[in-house]
Amino acid sequence: MNTYETILTRRSIRSYLDTPVDPGDLKEILEAGTWAPSGVNLQPWYLVAIQSKEKLEMLGEVMERVSAKIEPSLKARFANAPAVVDETTQFIRKLGGAPVYILAFQLKPDYENTADMINLSIGAALENILLAARDKGLGTCWLTAPVEAEVGNELRDIFAPGKGPLVALITLGYPAKEARVPKRKDGRYTIV
Ligand SMILES: Cc1cc2nc3c(=O)[nH]c(=O)nc-3n(C[C@H](O)[C@H](O)[C@H](O)COP(=O)(O)O)c2cc1C
What we know:
Blueprint: H1 3-9, H2 23-34, E1 45-50, H3 53-77, H4 82-94, E2 100-106, H5 115-135, E3 139-143, H6 145-148, H7 152-159, E4 166-173
Antiparallel strand pairs: 1-2, 2-4, 3-4
Bound molecules: flavin mononucleotide.
């Protein structure tokens, strides 16, 4: 698959097979994250890949609470679409049954640089991860729900003590089914 095709065919995957991810593939995917560009080459990310049964259970316990916490706001937002509420809360609770999760933290608790610069750099690492995974036939979904549900510090204390805030969680595994393709909106770029 060429790079352009990888970019266009990457989708957010919310349902996974329990097929394990090859350790060599996982290492290459994390490595791809670390080759992202970053402001003044700070490389301000710290990535934790979770795959052991014990750690998955610890994450699962926190995600149960994330799901319960966001359910009321989803119900209010999608009052006419209970199926969307069900699907989203189920996904957040079980994370689609993915065999691996990557938590992305800021490397340091504080930076002198702007939060934009730090978070954009971490976002670049996350996109590299998504594309490297897609290139290997693996699916991903980038989630900020745990940050929005304010369990970031709890996850940091469990999985990355002493590091900075949680920025996102990525699910990783082989897709169980083909994802729908959310439409792209017009008017998002111009050439002058
Ligand atoms: C910063 C960010 C946060 C996201 N948070 C969530 C999330 O919490 N839950 C979720 O199911 N998807 C989340 N997504 C995935 C988006 O919903 C998805 O990228 C978008 O609908 C477009 O679909 P596609 O990725 O298949 O192209 C997030 C994506 C980004 C970039």
